[in-house]
Amino acid sequence: MFERFTKSARAVVKGAVEHADRSGATVVTEEHLLLALLDRDGTRASAALRELCPPDRRPFLAAALADARRRAGLSRADAEALADLGIDVGAIVARVEETHGAGALAAHRENAGRPSGRRPFSREAKTVLEKSLRVAVARKDREIGDEHLLLALTLTGGTVAETLADHGVTYTSVSAAVFSPTAP
């Protein structure tokens, strides 16, 4: 599959690994893929992100991702479902952080099962890579570009897709920005 990735898509994957390295995570997550996409410039995905989530709004995006990490990656939908069962995720997070320190759930999630050798991709990140292929095939594109990775991130569900949608970055809006006649 990686032979079908464009230079820009490969750069995103490498950038995601670098983000994981810098953060001390033992696995590359879908959040690392998004951060690597946000680092890019001069590509179809970067143009779409600049249009849909301008640089002045990105600190809010980063804060929302950090908040999701504090909840051990639970989406708001997950937290609401647990609340319906009488489980207050916010109270649990507060109690865990009181006992083990700020970000304890995020650290556990990212560092669970420390592998040796190459940094593996999480199941969710692998799903993004697989969906990027499906998006490209559905569009009859021969190569997988970084725009396909961004589209796949909007489709996977979970905290990254939820956070992107909260900031106006959805499959529909990205498609319009990337594949419009005036797109780069």
Automatic annotation (TrEMBL):
Domain Clp R: residue ranges: 2-184
UniProt cross-references to InterPro entries, sorted A to Z: Clp_N_dom_sf, Clp_R_N
A matching Pfam family: Clp_N
Keyword set includes Repeat: yes
Keyword terms of this UniProt record: Repeat
Gene3D superfamilies (UniProt xref): Clp, N-terminal domain
Protein name: Peptidase
Protein's organism: Streptomyces antnestii
